[in-house]
Amino acid sequence: MRLTTLFYTLLFSAASLAQINPIDFEPATGVGGDWTWTVFENDDNPPLEIVVNPFIEGINTSQTVAKFTARVTGAPFAGCETMHGSDIGTFTLSPENAFVSIMVYKTVISDVGIKFATPEGASTGEIKIANSVVNQWERLVFDFTGVIDAPSSTGIDQLIVFPDFQTRSTENVIYFDNIVFGDSSLSVDEPGSVIKVTAIPNPSAAITKIECGEVINSLEVYNLMGQKVFEAAPEAMSYWLDLSRFKSGVYIARILGDAASSSVRIVKY
Asked: Model's pTM, two decimal places?
């Protein structure tokens, strides 16, 4: 796993935190791959698979990741959970560990949810964040500081992940990896990993100007089903995108530069 040194140094004293961190699914040296992950509310509940990373690119060059197959007939809240009293350990949420990041690779835009539970069944409630890009790895950060000192924040021994929190019309495969616990510094993007990008006007019925902090080598536009509907190679720091060719709706524009990438949500009305 190649994360910043910050992630690897997020080790806490046994007095304040006894959880396993990070969860990277790497063989031999990593953790999570041999845990007892139980899939729930997913029709026939196909097991969580630990597989070779099929997309070793961008921010995630890990060799091994988790693969979750969300059935069409599964519940919107289908997910997977670790075993109580094992796996992740027992811990209490504090400002030092209440931010949780996870890397996801998805072909559709939908919420990812995370929550924690205690042996008695108390739950923090899930926090949901939607991915903003498709067909590439993205890091999402969940802020659990709002439940610090709540009864459910003490004695936590279970992690629950909802990789595709939505009603589905297709079967979706979601990969996730590198679950890291830390403080608010986790919410800061790694330098050079993201390009500053804007789209104006947005929403628009006709055209929108995409401007970038560096030369745009590649521009790809996806609908919310993860289908690529447009691509171009501007080789410039701005690009006028003609929206008249698109149906009304929400689209994700993915911008690739020489050493970084970013995305912007565009609404066509």
From this structure: 0.71
In the chain, the DSSP E strands lie at 38-40, 49-52, 64-70, 79-81, 99-105, 111-117, 127-130, 137-143, 158-165, 172-182, 197-200, 207-216, 218-223, 228-232, 236-242, 249-256, 261-268
Fold adopted by 5-187: Jelly Rolls (2.60.120)
Q: What is the residue-level pLDDT of the chain in tens, covering all 269 positions?
A: 433 333 333 333 333 345 667 899 988 778 899 999 999 999 999 999 999 998 887 788 888 999 999 999 999 999 999 999 889 989 999 998 999 999 999 999 999 999 999 999 999 999 999 998 888 899 999 999 999 999 999 999 999 999 999 999 999 999 999 999 988 877 666 555 566 788 999 899 999 999 988 899 999 888 876 678 999 999 999 999 999 999 998 888 888 888 677 777 788 98
CATH for 197-268 (3.40.50.300, 3.40.225.10, 2.60.40.1220, 3.20.20.30): 2.60.40.1220
